[in-house]
Design goal:
Layout: E1 4-8, H1 12-24, E2 28-32, H2 35-45, E3 49-53, H3 61-72, E4 78-83, H4 88-97, E5 101-104, H5 109-123
Parallel strand pairs: 1-2, 1-3, 3-4, 4-5
Length: 136
């Protein structure tokens, strides 16, 4: 769905804040507080965007991206990673897992909105299947 965004993060404050901001800007939102629930929400909603934290207990954001790319291929929502780690290696691993864009926390909402505008361009350059981070 074109104006639907799914936010996945184990930090409820982050999810709730982003949800409120997206709603104020006319988006429909869904929330998930862990990777497994995020995967299930994608199956039900097929959002245009999935915004996911990378470091979550159980199923990480990396795992979420790899699973979504493997399952949906060309139909996969645009994936945007959020991370508290300002490290190029983390960003590279996230991109290898299938994310189109990696943003560092804390971030301004306008940064996220700008990234969502350019993400489809980055998406066009991604392979259909993610490469395994351990294969590099």
């Amino acid at each position: 769905m074109e104006n639907v965004v799914l936010i996945i993060d184990d930090n409820r404050d982050t999810v709730d804040t982003l949800t409120a901001l997206f709603i104020q800007h006319g988006w429909l939102t869904e929330r998930a507080y862990n990777g497994r629930d995020g995967i299930a929400a994608v199956a039900q909603l097929m959002p245009a965007y999935v915004i996911s934290d990378l470091a979550m207990p159980g199923m990480s954001g990396y795992d979420v991206a790899e699973e979504l790319r493997r399952t949906y291929g060309e139909r996969c929502p645009i994936l945007i990673a959020l991370t508290g780690w300002d490290d190029q290696g983390v960003a590279d691993q996230a991109m290898a897992a299938g994310f189109s864009i990696v943003l560092n926390k804390p971030l301004q909402f306008d940064q996220l909105m700008s990234a969502m505008k350019i993400a489809p361009l980055a998406e066009a350059e991604l392979p259909l299947q993610p490469s395994s981070p351990s294969s590099s």
